[in-house]
Design goal:
Strand content: 35-45%
Oligomer: single chain
Structural class: mainly beta
CATH superfamily: FlgT, C-terminal domain
Number of domains: 1
CATH architecture: Beta Barrel
Distance between the termini: 35 Å
CATH class: Mainly Beta
Helix content: under 10%
Radius of gyration: 16 Å
Length: 124
């Protein structure tokens, strides 16, 4: 089994859905939450030596897996509210906002939660 904790965006399906290049064969399960990071980050340089110390990654958004195939998984953007529903940790689709986040094929995804709660599927 390969590592499910890191992968890449393989496809941007629509404004709220993306596909990551990790699936059931890598241990990915419905309910897992991944952070999506841009391909480039901010370089941190030591002011005394000029030596590059590393890069700070910029998290673009978080997605929750709802459909797992052997080699890929589909995930929705979501928010957790601070109200009563948030106490129960129900995922809700993110409200459209004026802040546009651009997700690109090849962006890095990293596992942030393995809380694989049952994901409700709409049947109708």
């Amino acid at each position: 089994m390969t590592d499910q904790s890191a992968g890449r965006v393989a496809l941007v399906e629509d404004d709220y859905t993306l596909v990551i290049n990790r699936g059931a064969e890598a241990g990915v399960a419905a309910g897992m939450v991944f952070a999506v990071y841009g391909r480039t980050g901010r370089v941190v340089t030591d002011p005394d030596t000029g030596r590059e110390l590393g890069t700070i990654k910029r998290e673009k958004l978080r997605v929750r897996v709802f459909d797992v195939q052997p080699l890929f998984a589909r995930a929705h953007t979501f928010v957790e509210t601070d109200d009563f529903y948030g106490l129960l940790r129900f995922p809700f689709m993110a409200e459209p906002s004026e802040d546009v986040v651009s997700i690109d094929v090849g962006d890095t995804v990293e596992l942030v939660s393995t809380d694989t709660v049952a994901v409700r599927r709409d049947t109708g």
